């Protein structure tokens, strides 16, 4: 990818019907899909197709303000998300080359639980490319919105996923679990299974059993379709196997799961309700102990 394109400008327009995504993927819009090419609808009868870009790369420019492609999330030089028709395009810079990639987790979920076996929907992987420390994923868009939040259903999903067990703290393929909350704030960002196990053991979590967890079940990752009374879960890049005590603890400590709101009390309402429900369902937590460890450990490691 050209160095003058930061992550949040990974999607560049060539012309009104073609785009470059991370300089690794050519997206074109046309009247019909092509055999052998990943594709999806634009919602208006046309199709987007994925192919390899030509060499040399064609001239391109940032998306115009009036573009039908909408940026949904922008974390500057770390990650960005766009909606393109019936698909979601995600660009992310990964500091850890040994982490479990999101498409691997989604493939695992679809393989383990074929269509209809989960109580909630998940996206389908359309295409993915890794290039150096950058990762580009195109997945299907699940219908609905994030404006309604079902606490009891999300707690049930935590229980549903926790029925799956692993043999360590890692992603579904045994690689690193991308959850920085399991490393101290001032320590080395080592998310290897061995280091995360040592950290959790230091916190006196029960490390005799490891259960599957999304690790980022905030309101923005829960898509509700009110008419069908259905629910979908997106953004599986942090998912993996963790000690059971981490499920409720993560809800208590992660501000990334907050609602939007004008004051702290209203922003944290979602987390308060969810962690209470998880407590009623028998999930333990150690948020106070975690906070002391997270803020004060690791100073001498750097």
From TrEMBL:
It comes from the Eukaryota. Residues 210-241 form the Aminoglycoside phosphotransferase domain. Gene3D superfamilies: 3.90.1200.10. InterPro entries: AGP_Transferase, Aminoglycoside_PTrfase, Kinase-like_dom_sf. This is Aminoglycoside phosphotransferase domain-containing protein.
């Amino acid at each position: 990818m050209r160095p003058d394109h930061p992550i949040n400008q990974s999607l560049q327009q060539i012309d009104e019907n073609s785009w470059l995504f991370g300089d690794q993927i050519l997206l074109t819009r046309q009247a019909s899909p092509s055999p052998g090419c990943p594709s999806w609808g634009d919602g208006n009868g046309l199709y987007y197709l994925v192919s390899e870009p030509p060499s040399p790369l064609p001239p391109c420019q940032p998306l115009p303000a009036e573009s039908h492609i909408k940026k949904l999330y922008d974390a500057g030089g770390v990650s960005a998300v766009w909606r393109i028709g019936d698909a979601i395009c995600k660009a992310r810079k990964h500091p850890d080359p040994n982490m479990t990639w999101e498409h691997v987790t989604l493939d695992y979920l679809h393989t383990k639980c074929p269509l209809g076996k989960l109580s909630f929907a998940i996206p389908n992987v359309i295409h993915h490319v890794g290039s150096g420390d950058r990762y580009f994923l195109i997945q299907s868009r699940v219908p609905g919105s994030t404006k309604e939040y079902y606490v009891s259903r999300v707690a049930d999903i935590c229980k549903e996923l926790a029925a799956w067990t692993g043999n360590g703290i890692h992603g579904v393929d045994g690689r690193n679990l991308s959850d920085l909350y399991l490393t101290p704030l001032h320590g080395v960002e080592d998310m290897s299974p061995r280091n995360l196990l040592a950290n959790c053991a230091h916190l006196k979590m029960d490390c005799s059993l490891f259960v599957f967890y999304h690790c980022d079940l905030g309101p923005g990752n829960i898509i509700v379709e009110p008419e069908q009374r259905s629910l979908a879960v997106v953004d599986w890049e942090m998912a993996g196997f963790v000690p059971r005590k981490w499920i409720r603890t993560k809800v208590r400590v992660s501000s990334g799961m907050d609602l939007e709101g004008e004051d702290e009390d209203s922003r944290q309402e979602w987390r308060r309700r969810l962690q209470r429900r998880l407590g009623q369902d028998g999930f333990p937590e150690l948020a106070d102990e975690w906070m002391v460890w997270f803020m004060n450990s690791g100073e001498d490691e750097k």
